[in-house]
Design brief:
124 residues, alpha+beta, Immunoglobulin-like, four-stranded antiparallel sheet, 26% helix
Length: 124
């Protein structure tokens, strides 16, 4: 089990940010981030104001932007354990999912409207 816990803090302007916390050590972590089994460059790990905590910044490379699903794995390089991940979904793959979800929401809303009208008719 890894000695570190990762918590996402935000994803803004092409940079994923998180907070690393040590469970039983104060040694600075070795972090690796991969996309399609290739290393992501430009990662920064900086000591925070509290001991045993570090801020992590992962820049999203331009080559990761495009149609489809891109999953980034954040690893403890010393133990090769996955600490976390984040996913980008863009393009046509996303469009189909959103359209299907909207159709489902509309159907559920129509069902609720019918049930509400039936209820009002019976109790009114």
């Amino acid at each position: 089990m890894s000695a570190y816990t990762l918590t996402k803090t935000r994803f803004l302007e092409g940079t994923w940010e998180g907070l690393l916390s040590a469970t039983d050590t104060t040694a600075p972590p070795e972090i690796a981030v991969t996309l399609h089994d290739a290393p992501v460059r430009g990662i920064t790990v900086a000591q925070s104001s509290e001991p045993g905590r570090w801020s992590l910044e992962v820049p999203v490379p331009v080559e990761a932007l495009g149609d489809g699903v891109q999953t980034f794995l954040i690893l403890d390089a010393a133990s090769d354990e996955v600490l976390g991940s984040f996913t980008l979904i863009a393009g046509e793959a996303l469009g189909d999912d959103i359209r299907a979800e909207m159709a489902l929401l509309r159907a559920e809303l129509d069902m609720l409207k019918r049930a509400f009208r039936r209820h009002c008719t019976k109790t009114g």
